[in-house]
Amino acid sequence: MNDGLLNHATQAIEVGSKSFAAAARLFDPATRRSVLMLYAWCRHCDDVVDGQELGFNAAPSEQPDAANKLEGLREQTHRAYAGETMRDPAFAAFQEVALRHHIPQRFAFDHLAGFAMDVEGARYESIDDTLRYCYHVAGVVGLMMASIMGVSDARVLDRACDLGLAFQLTNIARDIVEDARIGRCYLPAQWLREAGIPRDELALPRHRPALAKLAARLVDHAEPYYASALGGIVALPLRSAWAIATARKVYRQIGIVVKRRGAHAWDERAGTSKATKLRLLAEGGGQALSSRLAGANALQTRPAGLWQRPGGAAEAAPGAAHASAV
Predict the structure, then answer these.
(1) Higher pLDDT among residues 65 and 163, named by residue
(2) How far apart are CA 140 and CA 109, in angstroms?
(3) Dihedral angle at the C-alpha atoms of 165, 78, 123, 176, nearest 10 degrees?
(4) Contacting residues for 147 by C-beta, under 8 A, at least 6 apart
(5) pLDDT tens, 104-115?
(6) Whole-structure pTM over 0.85, yes or no?
(7) Which residue ranges form the domains of the chain, and what is each CATH number?
(8) Cβ(101)–Cβ(35) under 8 Å?
(9) Cross-strand partners of 53
(10) Separation CA 73–CA 79 (nearest Å)
(11) How far apart are CA 299 and CA 70, in angstroms?
(12) Under a CB-based contact definition with an 8 Å cutoff, are residues 194 and 127 in contact?
């Protein structure tokens, strides 16, 4: 992997996700490079579809244009897996990572399917529908990240997916108003009806008190997924376990901030200070070390009632249902 691609990927994560960038520094150099390359591809695909740059200046393309761009991303992904020469830095990085770590093609295309949901203006009636979106845009990223860390055990992959789901639920809560301003809503329509908030009025200040309750509900909904994810770090190499435990704590803290702010959650973007990140980094290290003592028992039982990813460990068991209700 050349330095130019690594520099490109490093810039992408430092600008696009300060929260994950802090945790990513904890990986060993080889894992960190692959993680950054994967992130750069995910960020690039998102930006291409939305007409953004590193996650900013969101101005979603018109549907036909966005659909064409998405088809182009699918085609380039096929070519990357076929071993063709990639001229785009993001796809050159992805090709290196995907082929080196044997990331299943279905994971990559499941991720692109999440962008298709945005392009097609998908609506989310229930929390299960929202979680299905979360799987495509974040849960499957957890699966790809886990592949980089050498994970193949379906039980551990379930936990990696759970962490992605928790991250995305937190992101949705944090960005409700910002998303609404560009015509997007990932809250379940059932919840909006119960709260008496018309979908097209989400960004209006008069709905903030009711919206705060829905954001808190999302943050609470993320909790069992954060708890499940913690059980998976036992199977990761120590430095990877430290990085993931820290990322888990940082994102979870963002949800805590959103919930604590109530109706003022969207006055400014919720985040964590450098001092808080340092504290959480230390706590993450403690969790990574203590996981070494927990042993394989931490993976024995995934909490019941969680949304099940396609092809997950529960589905592999005889008589298992394809998805469990949340």
Answers:
(1) 163
(2) 10
(3) 50
(4) 101, 102, 103, 104, 107
(5) 999 999 999 999
(6) yes
(7) 1-104 (no CATH), 123-313+320-326 (1.10.600.10)
(8) no
(9) 56
(10) 10
(11) 37
(12) no
